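Researcher: Next entry in the queue.
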Amino acid sequence: MLVVIRGAGDIATGIALRLWRAHIQIVMTEIERPTAIRRTVCFSQAVVHGETTVEGVTARRAESPTEALRILGGGCIPVLPDPEGACVLVLKPEAVVDAILAKKNLGTRITDAPVVIGVGPGFTAGVDCHAVVETMRGHYLGRVIHEGTAIPNTGIPGLIGGFAGERVLRAPADGEFRQLLEIGAQVKMGDVAATVNGEPMVCTLDGVLRGILADGTPVFKGMKSGDIDPRCKIEHCYCASDKALAVGGGVLEAVLDLTGALK
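Model: Structure for this entry, 263 residues:
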């Protein structure tokens, strides 16, 4: 079975890990300049560096659907710089998973593949996809929705270690992001993690810098640009999150259920 996953950020990577470990073949797509924050656990970094490894699984950049299939044959996950998902027409996968997490549908259609799954808000099961997987932390996280939509985006991050919005760092201005601290750094409230046009992006609590935008990324004021984990576990910076794996479990369930129903 071949599945195309649109998006290769941290949630999409958790989905990919779940499917890959269930012996499902995967091709992922990304934009040419990814804006992932949790870069140490994102297969999107294969687009930037040519290759990246998360939890022992290696992803490699592919320049075409043909090369993607060659990379698959070599035991790695291919990541295509293909924001429009044009490779779907060539690869003809059994399933397409939209895990871009744009909070809206950027062009995925229910006719793209025999099984189409939308991840998070912006999709309606039975209209633009066959199933939706819930991404909101809480009781319904990772559940498969066969009719209707996911819970609307609240704009408030889920609780981690008792903190929600406080753990997210946002760009202080429009301009070019200048990273000062590395992922995994121990930080205190008031530390400066980055600057934009000379304005500091200040840490909002004590913890570990779990994610931060890459140096040189163009940003706008208020853009999510960093993530502090108050649990202070450095190892969390280098493995998929509970949320990513929960969502991945829901996608795996939906893929196996819906492709099995076609037989």
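Model: Residues 2-153+242-261 form a domain with the Rossmann fold fold (CATH 3.40.50).
Researcher: Noted, moving on.
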